[in-house]
Amino acid sequence: MTSEKNSASQVNSKNSLQSTRAFHLLLVDDDPLIHQALKLCLPKEWNVYGVQDPNHVPFERFFHAAFVDMHLFGDLTNPAGLKVIERLARSQPQLEIVAISGDMNRGLTYGALPESWSPTILSKATFC
Predict the structure, then answer these.
(1) Whether the Cβ atoms of residue 82 and residue 66 lie closer than 8 Å to each other
(2) CA distance 89 to 99
(3) How far apart (Å, rounded) are the C-alpha atoms in residues 83 and 50?
(4) How is domain 25-126 classified at the CATH fold level?
(5) Residue 111 is inside which H or E element, if any?
(6) Which of 63, 73, 76 is nearest to 111 (CA)?
(7) Do residues 107 and 101 lie in contact, with contact meaning Cβ atoms separated by under 8 Å?
(8) Sign of the Cα pseudo-torsion (42, 49, 62, 65, in order)
(9) 86 SS3 class
(10) Count of CB atoms within 10 A of residue 94's CB?
(11) Which residues 6+ apart lie within 8 Å of 2 measured at CB?
(12) What is the per-residue pLDDT across 77-127, written as a single tens digit (0 to 9) for each?
């Protein structure tokens, strides 16, 4: 009987730890609809810190993951998000970074990235 109580107690404490842990996601995208969609899709344990301007990215804050739009401000010739990704990767090597793009041309997106980096790339068309 005692071991059953201990097992139940361990399960309850694991569940309470999992339910109280918060995760921090950085979202860098100039489209406010992407911010809204991502916040609606994520479980409540994820706190989304969103910025639309790459000059306002809080590089000093800790994040578990980051979604960064490759082509901020709709300029497909200038992958401004790449600079954000590079700086995040240097300042937070543990960070899981997902490059996102509304442009379905993967060649353009991959072509903007250094060959040594193999990112996760997500098309905005697949959100939620």
Answers:
(1) no
(2) 12
(3) 17
(4) Rossmann fold (3.40.50)
(5) helix 106-111
(6) 76
(7) no
(8) positive
(9) helix
(10) 7
(11) none
(12) 777 888 898 899 888 888 888 888 776 666 655 555 656 665 565 555 555
Predicted confidence (pLDDT) per residue in 14-49, tens digit? 444 455 589 999 999 999 999 999 999 999 999 999
Q: Are 28 and 72 in contact (CB under 8 A)?
A: yes
Q: Is 52 helix (H, G, I), strand (E, B) or coil?
A: coil
Q: What is the pTM of this model?
A: 0.71
> What are the extents of the domains in the chain?
25-126
User: What is the Cα–Cα distance from 102 to 98, expressed in whole angstroms?
Assistant: 13
Tokens of 115: 């060959």
Q: Which segments of 69-111 does DSSP mark as H helices, in order?
A: 81-91, 106-111
Cα(42)–Cα(1) distance, integer angstroms: 40
